[in-house]
Write a structure and sequence with these properties.
Two copies of one chain form a homodimer. Chain A is α/β, with parallel strands linked by helices. Chain A contains seven helices and six strands. Helix content of chain A is about 35%, strand content about 15%. In chain A, strand 2, helix 3 and strand 3 form a beta-alpha-beta unit. In chain A, helix 2 runs parallel beside helix 3. Chain A starts with 15 loop residues before the first helix and ends in a 15-residue tail after the last strand.
């Protein structure tokens, strides 16, 4: 947004300062690239503010997010910004093997951890990477997610990424961006490559 | 992309390895959030690969990108990944004051610098942040941009962000993602805030 002016001033009794510091639920969804990379870009801003950042990675792959993970761990360790904690939820599963019961249990436990951290205000920004999938597959109850997010205390921002975000999640979110694929090199036979996909 | 398999294997005589390492022109456009944050997320992956990263910022604002700039400068200085060079093109202008001739000259000089760096293979990944605007305003000739990008040597990836990407730029790009605004808190009177917008 090039200009910071809202389209309208709401009659909500809040001061500009209060509106400026409203905690947000942000969803990056859609079939295009950039959902997770944009979330990690936001994490850079949070780090720069000195905020504790919690990353919760819900889909496992040998190569996924290695660049982001290394970068954010190094940044967190510098002490020049906020600390960064990187959680891998359900280390043993990938979204391809989605019919296995223990994966569902691991995802549910991952979400339970997030709910505990939100209650304790452990972080100021949460990146729930690929969290739309365990919701979509019914491993995590969307009503519970909406309830916990809505009731979270303090000024905690939550960024959720992944395709096919549940309509109830979108309704609960403050900011939703859909990444649309206009042109993709894999359509032309391109393989995934380092520095781009991971 | 959860799976690395292309939709089809092209009859281009290239090996999988060659296709894996094809230099890309990537465009993040559209009215939604996440265009620049996703580009800086890609820069994290490039940094992690040890690649020299060059950021060219084409729009100035007191607060814009301060988080990303600090984070990427710190990362570059650690020596644990690639070096990062951050260029501010046209320090004195912002996109709001777009009718001033010297801004056009500064943008043109900024592009000339990028063209020189591409010819010299100074970086492995280029982030041309908000570069769609000087093209849109005619400050930089789109045919020249396409020509330079198409003829660039080596394995240099170029990521360009901004709304209203020129059709010729989209045609030249390998990967185009459109960020669409589904829901935005400024529509509900929310102000821009630290850690989110900067």
């Amino acid at each position: 947004m090039p200009q910071g002016n809202p389209a309208q001033i709401p009659d909500d009794g809040l001061t500009t300062r209060q509106r400026r510091n409203r905690p947000l639920v942000i969803v990056h969804t859609g079939p295009g690239k950039g959902k997770s990379t944009a979330a990690f870009g936001l994490a850079l801003r949070a780090w720069n503010q000195g905020w504790p950042v919690g990353v919760f990675q819900f889909v496992k792959s040998a190569k996924w997010r290695v660049g982001e993970e290394h970068a954010l761990r190094v940044l967190g360790d510098t002490g020049q910004g906020g600390p960064v904690t990187w959680h891998k939820m359900g280390e043993g599963w990938s979204w391809i093997q989605r019919d296995q019961t223990d994966h569902a249990e691991q995802a549910a436990e991952g979400w339970a951890q997030i709910a505990r951290d939100l209650a304790a205000q452990t972080y100021r920004m949460y990146v729930l990477d690929e969290f739309t999938y365990p919701i979509k597959w019914g491993w995590v109850d969307v009503d519970d997610v909406v309830s916990v997010l809505t009731a979270r205390p303090g000024a905690q921002h939550v960024v959720i990424t992944g395709r096919d975000a549940h309509p109830k999640l979108l309704e609960c979110a403050d900011l939703v961006t859909e990444m649309t694929k206009v042109k993709h090199p894999m359509d032309a036979g391109q393989k995934g490559q380092k520095g781009i996909e991971w």
